[in-house]
Design brief:
alpha/beta; binds alpha-D-glucopyranose
C-alpha cells in the first residue's frame, strides 16, 4: 500500500476506529501477548503481538537457547537461523509481531534479564541483534527491537532515571538499536525506565530526535506493557502504540467474567480520577519494585479521546500514529484487502517442522557453550561411568523467569541425555532444587517454593559417595534469574558451591556444567578438572551438553566478562548500581565490562572472548587491506589438532593517545570458523571505520588521526598478533 493509500484509509476512519489502533487490547483468545482489533469495516484485520526472544510464549513452542548463548556463539548467521525459526513459529500460531530481540547491553553482571541479551560489547550485541531481526523478518513476521534504551537493570526498572552522557549512549547503548533498525526491525519497544529524567515512552529527544529523524526509522514505536505515564507527553514523545492498554486481570484472565466485572468497576477511569482503591490494593498486594504500576495505563484510551475532544491533542497527531501502526500491518502484507468490505487477510500461517527446530535449538545450544577450563579430561570417551550430580540436573534449564518464558515442545535433561551416552550413570541431587522463578508469581510464591524445595531427596553425602564410586563426576549447577528483579549476588544460589567442592574432593575428575544468566563466582575452580558454561540452553539442554562432553567442539566464546567479585566490575558502588534516590549514574561511561577491567588493570576470572577448544589453533601473519569502509584483515588460521574444531578470530582496535580517554581496546570485528583436522584457512575479518571512531558531543563521530593497533586475538586478554594501521 502506498503512503497515499494509507493516508486515505486513515481519512476514512472514525476517531474511535483510530483509537482502537493506538492502544492494545487483550487477545480475546488469551494467546497473544497483546492484540489490536483492527477495523473490520475497512478490511483492517486484527494484529497479534507475541513474546519473546527465545521462543513463542503461546502454548507449546520450541524453547531456543538464551539470547546470551547466541551472543556466546559469536555467529550472526546462527542467530539469523534461530530468528527465522522463531518467526515461523509465531506466524504458524497466527501471530504477526515478535516482541524480540532483546538487545540491551549487559552493564550489570547480575541484571535479572542478562540471559535475554547478547553481550556486554556493543559490536557483538549489534551483530547478533541485526541477524535476529533479519531472521524473524525472513519468516514473514515483524521484529521488535527492545527495550529502547538503557534498560540495563531490573531493580526499580519502572522508576529509575538513568543519568548517562551522550558519548556513552552513542558508543555503547544505541548501536545495537541502530543495527536492528538498519536490519529492518518494524517496531521498537520503549523501555520502562527514564533517561535523563524523561520516561522512554515519551522521550522526544531519543525517540523523535535520534530514532526517527537521525536514523530515519519510520516503523512503529510501541510501549512496554503498562510502560506509559502521560497522554500528551507520549503523543508528543513519539509513542505510536500503547500496550497493552488493558488491566492485568483482563490480560491474564480474559475469560474470567467475575474478574472482568471487577475490572469493569472502573468508572473512575472514565472520570479521569486516580486509580480506584481496587487497583491500588492490587498494586500493593502484587506489585513489586521491578514491576510497572499495573493500573491499566489507558493513556491512549479515554484520556486520549478526551484530549482530542478538548483540542489538547490534535487529531492529526493521532492520524500519524495510526499511519505508523498501519505501516506495521503493511510490512506484514495485511492491508492487501484493506479499504474493501472483503477485508484483509490475517496472513497465511505457515506450518513448522518441530523436529527440525529442536535440532536447531540443540545446535545453537552446542555453539553457545563455552569451554571455560579443561585439564584434558574432556572430551569423554564414552567408556567412563558417570555420577551426575546437581539439584536440577534431571530437568532441562529451558529459560529464565518473566515474559521470555516458553513452554517447551519437549525437553532433554542432562541426566536423561548422559544416561544414553555413558556406560553407567548414577544420579544424586545433592542439595535442594534451585527455584525456577516466574515474573508473575505473587510475593509469597518464593516462600512456598522454598518450603516445597526443602522436602527434596537432596543428600550431599550420597552425592559425594556417588562421585567417589564413578570414573567421572558431572556436577550441573545453575542460577535462577528472572525479569523484574536482579540476582542478589554473583554467587550460585543455595549450597551448590559447597556441593561442587565436596564432589571435587571426592573425585579429581569432576566436570562442572554451569547453567547461568551471566557471570557467576567459582570458588571451586582450582579443584575441578573442567568447566563448561551453557547459559540457559533451552529445551535441547541435555542433548547439547552430551554432544559437547563427548566431543563436539563447542566454539563458544564469552560474551561477558567473568569477574572474580562484583566489586571488580565498573558498576560497583550504589550510585552506579542500583542507583540512589531513583537515579542510576552511568559514571563509568564507556568503560563497561572488559573495557572497565582493562582500564583499572584488574584480571578477570575469565576475560571477554575467552573459550577453549578441543582442537588446537594457530594463526599466522595477518595482513590488513583498506576496504570501502575501514579495513579487511586476512588472518591465516590452522587447526593443528587431529579433530575438527571451531575458532573465533577476534580483532580489537587500540587507539592512539588522544584528546579524551578511550578504552585500551574495543572489539572491531570477528569471524567464527569451523576447521577440520589439519585444515588451514585465511579468515577475513572486517573492521569498519566506525570501530576507530569515538563520539564527540560537538563534532559527532570522530576518527582521531594517528596509528591504530589492530590486535588479532583469541580473547580480549589473549592477543596473538598486533599490527598498525594509519587512520586519517
Ligand atoms: C514485559 C517486558 C517485555 C515484554 C512485555 C510483554 O514487561 O519488559 O520485554 O515483551 O512486557 O510481555
Amino acid at each position: 500500500m502506498t503512503d497515499g493509500e494509507r493516508d486515505r484509509l486513515v481519512a476514512e476512519m472514525t476517531l474511535e476506529e483510530k483509537l482502537g489502533l493506538v492502544r492494545g487490547h487483550a487477545d480475546p483468545a488469551g494467546r497473544a501477548t497483546g492484540a489490536l482489533p483492527g477495523v473490520e469495516r475497512l478490511g483492517v484485520p486484527p494484529l497479534r503481538l507475541v513474546d519473546g526472544p527465545m521462543g513463542v510464549r503461546d502454548g507449546r513452542a520450541t524453547a531456543f537457547p538464551a539470547t546470551l548463548a547466541l551472543g556466546a556463539s559469536w555467529d550472526p548467521a546462527l542467530a539469523r537461523r534461530v530468528g527465522a525459526a522463531l518467526g515461523a513459529e509465531a506466524r504458524a500460531k497466527g501471530h504477526h509481531v515478535v516482541l524480540g530481540p532483546g538487545l540491551n547491553v549487559i552493564r550489570v553482571p547480575t541484571c535479572g534479564r542478562n540471559f535475554e541479551y547478547p553481550s556486554e560489547d556493543p559490536r557483538l550485541t549489534a551483530a547478533v541483534a541485526a541477524a535476529s531481526v533479519a531472521g524473524i523478518r525472513s519468516a514473514g513476521a515483524a521484529a521488535t527491537a527492545k527495550h529502547f534504551v538503557a534498560n540495563n537493570q531490573e531493580r526499580q526498572r519502572d522508576g529509575v532515571s538513568v543519568v548517562v552522557d551522550e558519548r556513552t549512549l552513542r558508543e555503547l547503548y544505541l548501536p545495537g538499536f541502530r543495527a536492528a533498525v538498519a536490519a529492518g526491525a518494524e517496531a521498537v519497544m520503549t523501555a520502562y525506565n527514564r533517561v535523563r529524567g524523561r520516561w522512554m515512552s515519551e522521550h522526544t529527544e531519543l525517540v523523535e530526535g535520534v530514532l526517527r529523524e537521525e536514523w530515519g526509522f519510520d516503523g512503529c514505536v510501541v510501549s512496554d506493557w503498562w510502560g506509559t505515564h502521560d497522554t500528551r507527553a507520549a503523543v508528543e514523545g513519539g509513542l505510536d502504540l500503547e500496550m497493552p492498554g488493558v488491566s492485568p486481570l483482563e490480560l491474564y484472565a480474559p475469560r474470567s467474567h467475575l474478574l472482568r466485572a471487577l475490572v469493569g468497576l472502573r468508572p473512575s477511569e472514565r472520570a479521569g480520577i486516580d486509580p480506584p482503591v481496587l487497583w491500588r490494593a492490587y498494586d500493593a498486594l502484587v506489585g513489586d519494585e521491578g514491576q510497572p504500576d499495573l493500573y491499566p495505563a489507558a493513556y491512549f484510551g479515554d484520556r486520549l479521546r478526551r484530549a482530542v475532544a478538548s483540542g489538547a491533542v490534535a487529531e492529526a497527531a493521532v492520524d500519524r500514529k495510526v499511519e505508523r501502526v498501519l505501516g506495521l500491518y503493511d510490512a506484514l502484507g495485511l492491508l492487501d484487502g484493506a479499504g474493501k468490505p472483503s477485508g484483509g487477510s490475517a496472513g497465511e500461517s505457515p506450518t513448522v517442522d518441530a523436529d527440525a527446530h529442536h535440532d536447531l535449538a540443540r545446535e545453537a545450544a552446542v555453539r553457545g557453550t563455552v569451554l571455560l577450563d579443561n585439564d584434558g579430561l574432556l572430551p569423554l570417551s564414552g567408556a567412563e561411568s558417570l555420577a551426575v550430580v546437581g539439584p536440577n540436573a534431571d530437568a532441562a534449564k529451558v529459560g529464565g523467569g518473566g515474559s521470555s518464558a516458553v513452554t517447551p515442545a519437549r525437553t532433554v535433561s542432562p541426566l536423561a541425555a548422559l544416561r544414553e551416552r555413558a556406560s553407567g550413570v548414577t544420579f544424586e541431587r545433592g542439595v535442594a532444587r534451585v527455584a525456577e522463578p516466574s515474573l508473575f508469581d505473587p510475593p509469597w510464591a518464593g516462600t512456598v517454593r522454598r518450603l516445597r524445595g526443602a522436602t527434596t531427596d537432596a543428600d550431599p553425602d550420597a552425592a559425594v559417595a556417588a562421585a567417589a564410586d564413578a570414573d567421572v563426576a558431572v556436577v550441573v549447577v545453575q542460577d535462577g534469574a528472572t525479569e523484574g528483579e536482579d540476582r542478589d549476588s554473583l554467587a550460585l544460589p543455595g549450597d551448590q558451591d559447597a556441593l561442587v567442592a565436596a564432589v571435587a574432593a571426592a573425585n579429581d575428575r569432576t566436570v562442572v556444567v554451569c547453567r547461568s544468566s551471566g557471570p557467576v563466582r567459582m570458588p571451586w575452580l582450582d579443584d575441578v578438572a573442567a568447566v563448561v558454561a551453557t547459559w540457559y540452553p533451552g529445551q535441547a539442554d541435555g542433548a547439547a551438553l552430551a554432544d559437547v562432553l563427548y566431543g563436539a567442539d563447542p566454539g563458544g566464546r564469552l560474551p561477558v566478562t567473568f569477574g572474580r567479585r562484583f566489586a571488580d566490575y565498573p558498576v560497583a558502588g550504589d550510585r552506579r548500581y542500583p542507583g540512589v534516590d531513583g537515579h542510576v549514574h552511568y559514571d563509568e561511561g564507556v568503560f563497561v565490562g572488559y573495557r572497565g577491567f582493562d582500564r583499572v588493570g584488574v584480571d578477570p576470572l575469565f576475560p571477554f572472548g575467552h573459550g577453549r577448544s578441543y582442537a588446537a589453533f594457530a594463526c599466522g601473519d595477518a595482513s590488513a587491506t583498506p576496504a570501502d569502509d575501514g579495513w579487511r584483515l586476512d588472518v591465516p588460521v590452522a587447526n593443528d589438532a587431529d579433530r575438527a574444531g571451531r575458532e573465533v578470530v577476534q580483532v580489537y582496535v587500540s587507539p592512539p593517545d588522544g584528546p579524551v580517554e578511550r578504552p585500551a581496546r574495543t572489539l572491531g570485528g570477528f569471524a567464527s570458523v569451523e576447521l577440520a583436522a589439519g585444515e588451514r584457512e585465511r579468515v577475513s575479518v572486517s573492521v569498519p571505520r566506525r570501530a576507530f571512531a569515538r563520539y564527540d558531543s560537538r563534532e559527532g563521530w570522530t576518527v582521531d588521526p594517528g596509528e591504530y593497533d589492530l590486535l588479532v586475538a583469541r580473547s580480549s586478554r589473549d592477543v596473538r598478533e598486533r599490527m598498525s594501521v594509519t587512520a586519517e
